[in-house]
Write a structure and sequence with these properties.
four-stranded mixed β-sheet; 341 residues; elongated; 14 strands; 51% helix; alpha+beta; Pdz3 Domain
Length: 341
Amino acid sequence: MLSILVAIIGLGLLIVLHEGGHFLVARLCGMRVERFSIGFGPTLLGFEHKGTTFQIAPIPLGGFVQITGMNPNEEFDRNDPMVYPNRPRWMRMATILAGPAANYLTAFVLTLFVLLTFGMPSKTQKIVEPVAGRPAAVAGLKTGDVLVSANGQSVDADHPITDVIQASQGKPVAIKVMREGKPLSFDVAAENKAGVYQVGIQIGPIDERTPIGVGGAVKEAVVYPYYASVGILEGLYGMVRGKVHADLSGPIGITKQIAKAASRGAVDFLGILILLSVYLGLFNLLPVPALDGGRAMFLAIESISRKKVNPKIEAAVHTAGFVLLLGVLAIVSFKDIFGKG
């Protein structure tokens, strides 16, 4: 129960920081912010400060910052210099991008903290969790098994076991591990998931870590969000092409994963928050209507064409995107609650 509470707080913190980025830059750019909400729907708890209502709402699907005039169909005083459309274009773009930027900054700060506090992770990897019913679990691999080799090839962070599994093309893979100091071997036949061969394991570094200096830690903390983003984009591209099995999770599934990480310790908990912060920042940068990237796309069109986009058209596009996103969230949340089927 405690791990679930910690997970909810962690996920809520990422949302607060994202919306806080929008809020802070909007205020710095002289925009009127009417509402800062965690969750959607009517106010459960809230207070007003300097003209902004800060609230917690009952539908935990994210949050929003309501900036006067940002909704294309919104009624507002066209002569008010503090409304969103009347601020310079660069200020509007900065406000839109501030949320994702806050997530990337969060990932950098948390990574730096973990490295300076706990040290660099080992390149040796272990099985964090074998997925129940999948080949690895059926073969007998367990949480905590330290990966040694696959088909005679040494495996670690630089030589991932996934490469060996993919090269097997479905033939049994001889996986050697260390379990409580004893060497064990397992023959695992990979499953074909849309052209990608998998055995159903989540892997991560072993608990041993080595100290790192401030300079090295800063360098690693700077490059991690970049490489994590590249990996995420490659995965999305693979899903679009049908070469990677889509396994999406909604807020409930994500909370469960955070709770599992929290139960394993502070490093795993902070590690998943770092990755989720990158996910949240990158996802919001995608040029999808209703997301920050979608709004930035319309602003870019306006900048290039030097003409205002028809507010009714923009509002309709964002509304359609929002409804689509809600539909996807409903589907993945149903899967999270009732199983993957």
